[in-house]
TrEMBL record:
Protein name, per record: Uncharacterized protein
Length: 55
């Protein structure tokens, strides 16, 4: 009986570790995509002066 409880706890811990790793990868990927979107922003409508374009 105790062996089953230990085995269940080990499986739960392994699952938790895998989920944490996946979450870290997804957050990192999301951060990179947001940075890429910010750099690739194209203004929709309106106009820029020469000084604003260089900022």
């Amino acid at each position: 009986m105790l062996e089953k409880v230990i085995k269940g706890a080990e499986m739960a811990m392994q699952s938790s570790i895998l989920l944490q790793q996946e979450l870290h990868q997804l957050r990192t990927s999301n951060r990179h995509q947001k940075e890429k979107m910010t750099r690739a922003f194209i203004q929709d409508g309106g106009s820029l002066t020469g000084g604003e374009g260089f900022q």
